[in-house]
Structure of Pyridoxal phosphate homeostasis protein:
Amino acid sequence: MTTIANNLHLIRSQISAITQAASRPTASVELLAVSKTRHADELRQAWDEGQRDFGENYLQEALDKIEALSDLEICWHFIGPTQSNKTRPIAENFSWVHSVERFKVAQRLSDQRPDSMEPLNICLQVNISREESKSGILPEELPQLAEQIASLDNIQLRGLMAIPASNDDPDLQRQPFSQLSELLKQLQKQLPNQPLDTLSMGMSGDMAAAIREGATIVRIGTALFGPRDYSQ
Ligand SMILES: *Cc1c(COP(=O)(O)O)cnc(C)c1O
């Protein structure tokens, strides 16, 4: 087996062990393979082992891979920064956007979503650790933004995404995830008619803590494909 195949099987068994230990239903956590900087051939190796969901951060790089892998049935997730002048290719090529933080962007994604496609699934990115440098809205801004976005035609508001401040302590890692989970519960009460079922949280370094706090999508790059090389 290739390294990627091996890693994939290992991550899957970790996810299922952690899910079980947390008394959560089997298959309640989906693995999103984060493939930024990786070559199309590496994604194909993961696809050959049954991986179908891939997450990309950079639009042009993503579009090149979508083209190169157009013979495969892949569910593409956009997880990088969203700019309002680059929404059309996102609306036309992706099934999910995890990183929405402005109404204007959501509105354009909705307007530009082709009628022939299913509504675009989106998550709102929350700056859960309140870091100056991080993308995302603050928790107190969530109710108003969610309310506005819920009214858009070609968008399904699915839930929340966060990248907490990094922390090596597994117990402290759980705090921001627990906060995000609480915010989703509040949102479900506020907007009972939206399909709010998604907590996109947990990466290679904090996947276990995120699953224990209710993650439904974990976004894994390094543990699957190895360390990234940004020099090329
Ligand atoms: C790169 C990235 C990941 C994957 O991080 P790893 O630590 O490599 O698993 C997950 N989510 C987002 C938004 C990312 O940009």
Summary: The two ends are 27 Å apart (CA to CA). The chain has a mean pLDDT of 96. The longest strand covers residues 155-161. The chain has nine helices and eight strands.
